[in-house]
């Protein structure tokens, strides 16, 4: 092989030196999307909400239009009525959910709530029903407040229920029987079901992804703006776990979630290892 000439060698050397001293163009790191704020989900959805009886045992709230609606079964607090939670139910109906709220203030067994799910599943198959072909029977969540929160945990052991939202829950149900993701909510100023008790139930729930949120300044009765905060968070949870809204997922999950960043609304947040 013919050797390089002296001139060629000098040229190669010069190019090498030039490449070493000329700064290289920096490659920008990929942008990381900011987590979604739970407050986004406090706004009403696009559907008109309808209220109707669901037999003698339930009150239903549902979207006036559309099909494939996920379901939320609900349990009231001790001696509470459905009307006391109507703001939440009409809000969820506007987002496309069918809510079956048990007409009782004693829903701790979870059976009253599950009866609502079974009623809607049957109506989905019944020709002539307003719900005929409109229910996503595989997308059912259980939620409730106080005793109803304990009832939601009890109902969440049933295979019908895909995710559970205990709001300031009582002692009913076994968190280790839940088989889907769970979102536990406490109130910072709750003296009826103290925050430390709700957190203890969250900590015991280690077999499924679980998230804990403590509402800043909230009493057991969700006064003022604390009610709006929990409504937005419940909606975001359902949007992610039942409707596949990926933006809603960042409200709860990620290195820093939207819930973590909402210091004005949430005084403490936590995720277990399965939700990290």
Automatic annotation (TrEMBL):
The keyword Signal applies. SUPFAM superfamilies: alpha/beta-Hydrolases. Gene3D superfamilies: alpha/beta hydrolase. This is PET hydrolase/cutinase-like domain-containing protein. Residues 31-246 form the PET hydrolase/cutinase-like domain. It comes from Amycolatopsis keratiniphila subsp. keratiniphila. InterPro entries: AB_hydrolase_fold, PET_hydrolase/cutinase-like, TAT_signal. Keywords: Signal. PROSITE patterns: TAT (PS51318). Residues 1-28 form the signal peptide.
